[in-house]
């Protein structure tokens, strides 16, 4: 189940798609008290896009919808829905210009209509900060232009942000990955053998260090990385001169030179679905990399992708479906953001097939937008 959004984009913020607008406006609040247990049981079976309308029906519904316990129950019962978040900025306006958070919403009455909707400011976000997601939480770690030890967490259920205990060292453009409910943060600072790798235990909220010596020696003075992903319980890292893989359970490293197949098409926009790395090459072809085979191949069945600026696009895994956000290629006039949804399937014999489920403009603009980040959470 790959549901993009939590709200509709038809101006009603939810509702029954089979009802006419006049009928929805006449929805009267219930005068009878509803037990909280009954309200929770009902809401667990309803898609989140209908929550705003249900909150108008009853005070109990409104209370339960605003409670963390409802989302915790959804998580425990496996009833969560994936939601895509994007961080978009207007480049070249000023150095101090803050990017804006957007959420990808689906119009429940039209089934296929998508739109990026802006959110209230949640936090300052430097491009290059390491970002990982766990359930409905998004962890933002370190900085980019300025090294920092700051770590904060965004609760995407209620779009609230809070600080976490800081790391021992300030970091800029580190790599990060979640394995066994532990966040491993690697590099982003001068390499030392005592705390170049730090680990945050999500359950205890405590940081610890992974002592060296490390098998990898950073070639960069400040130790920053280009990008990172998690495949097969390993943290894959792109260094300007090579590719690395760190296996935290055993503390082992693998490395590939700049002439390896992995380096060729792996860039910061790539994403992982079921331990396969997906990317788009300059010829607008969707490619996949299997770490067991160690080479890229074309995803079969995906043809005629729109001519977009894939060099600066962003890919995300949204409930097992590949979602691509990219700008138009126009040098003059509008710079709209497109969204392409692609279902992918690994078949017998190792072939990977895909099918474009939808493609549409999700954000219209007369300015050149920069998509800094694209991540999905589940709640």
Protein described:
This protein has 379 residues and is mainly beta. The protein folds into 3 domains: 21-76, no CATH class; 82-119 and 268-374, no CATH class; 122-266, Kelch-type beta propeller (Neuraminidase, 6 Propeller). The chain contains 6 helices and 24 strands. The chain has helices at residues 21-25, 36-44, 51-57, 59-65, 68-76, 261-265, and strands spanning 82-89, 100-106, 114-118, 130-134, 137-141, 151-155, 160-164, 175-179, 182-186, 197-201, 206-210, 227-231, 234-238, 242-247, 252-257, 271-273, 276-280, 286-290, 295-298, 308-318, 321-328, 337-346, 352-363, 370-378. The strands form 6 sheets. It has a 4-stranded antiparallel β-sheet with strand order 3-2-1-24, with no helix packed on it. Strands 4-5-6-7 form a 4-stranded antiparallel β-sheet, with no helix packed on it. The chain is globular and about 70 Å long. The two termini are 13 Å apart. Mean pLDDT is 84; it is low at 1-25. Pfam families: F-box, Kelch_FKB95. This is F-box domain-containing protein.
């Amino acid at each position: 189940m790959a549901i993009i959004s939590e709200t509709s984009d038809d101006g009603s913020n939810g509702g029954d798609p089979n009802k006419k607008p006049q009928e929805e406006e006449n929805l009267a609040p219930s005068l009878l008290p509803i037990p909280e247990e009954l309200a929770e049981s009902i809401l667990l079976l309803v898609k989140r896009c209908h929550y705003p309308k249900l909150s108008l029906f009853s005070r109990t519904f409104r209370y339960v919808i605003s409670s963390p316990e409802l989302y915790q129950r959804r998580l425990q019962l496996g009833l969560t829905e994936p939601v895509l978040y994007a961080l978009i900025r207007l480049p070249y306006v000023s150095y101090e210009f803050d990017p804006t958070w957007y959420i990808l919403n689906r119009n429940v009455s039209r089934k296929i209509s998508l739109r990026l909707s802006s959110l209230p400011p949640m936090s300052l976000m430097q491009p290059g900060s390491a970002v990982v997601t766990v359930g409905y939480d998004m962890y933002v770690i370190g900085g980019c232009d300025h090294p920092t030890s700051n770590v904060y967490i965004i609760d995407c259920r209620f779009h609230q942000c809070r600080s976490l205990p800081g790391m021992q060292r300030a970091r800029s453009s580190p790599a990060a990955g979640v394995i066994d409910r532990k966040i491993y943060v690697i590099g982003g600072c001068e390499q030392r053998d005592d705390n170049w790798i730090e680990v945050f235990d999500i359950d205890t909220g405590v940081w610890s260090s992974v002592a060296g010596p490390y098998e990898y020696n950073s070639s960069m003075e400040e130790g920053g990385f280009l990008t990172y992903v998690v495949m097969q319980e390993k943290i894959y890292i792109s260094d300007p001169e090579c590719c690395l893989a760190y296996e935290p359970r055993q503390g082992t490293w693998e490395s590939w030179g700049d002439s390896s197949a992995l380096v060729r098409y792996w860039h910061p926009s790539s994403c992982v679905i079921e331990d396969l790395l997906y990317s788009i090459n300059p010829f607008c072809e969707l490619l996949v990399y299997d770490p067991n085979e160690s080479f890229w191949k074309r995803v079969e069945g995906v043809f005629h992708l729109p001519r977009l600026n894939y060099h600066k696009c962003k890919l995300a895994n949204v409930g097992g479906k590949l979602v691509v956000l990219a700008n138009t290629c126009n040098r003059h006039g509008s710079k709209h953001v497109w969204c392409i949804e692609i279902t992918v399937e690994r078949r017998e014999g190792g072939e990977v097939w895909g099918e474009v489920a939808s493609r549409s403009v999700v954000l219209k603009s007369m300015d050149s937008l920069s998509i800094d980040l694209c991540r999905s959470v589940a709640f």
